[in-house]
Amino acid sequence: MSASNINAEKQRRFRERQRQKGNKEVRGYVSPKGMHCYKELSEKSGWTDGELLNNALRITYAAYRCGQIKLLNEWLKSNDC
Questions:
Q1: Among candidates 39, 38, 73, 47, which has minimal Cα distance to 59?
Q2: How many helices (H) and strands (E) does the chain have?
Q3: What are the pLDDT digits (tens) for 29-80?
Q4: Apex 40 CA angle, 36 and 42, nearest 5
Q5: Radius of gyration of the chain from Cα atoms?
Q6: Are 25 and 18 in contact (CB under 8 A)?
Q7: Phi and psi for 56 in degrees, rounded to 5?
Q8: What b/e sequence results for 44-73 when a residue is b if at least 16 CB atoms lie within 10 Å of its CB, and e otherwise?
Q9: Which of 36, 45, 75, 72 is nearest to 57 (CA)?
């Protein structure tokens, strides 16, 4: 079996495990709880998938640059996100 076939088989098994866990692929695998938050954000903001990802990255980067990653994580946990 070639290296590319081995890698394809690993990817197939990974995708199958994610589906069995109930995760859905959006731009990666998302848990059911994460999918609920994603849908809620999408409905409230009217943003597309790409806009949600872009804005999430901007917020995360801004928190990183300001040394506020811990604060952002604590807020996300306390708001059940």
A1: 73
A2: 4, 2
A3: 778 888 888 899 899 999 988 888 889 899 999 999 999 999 998 988 888 7
A4: 115
A5: 16
A6: yes
A7: -65, -40
A8: eeeeeeeebeeeeeeeeeebeeeeeeeeee
A9: 72
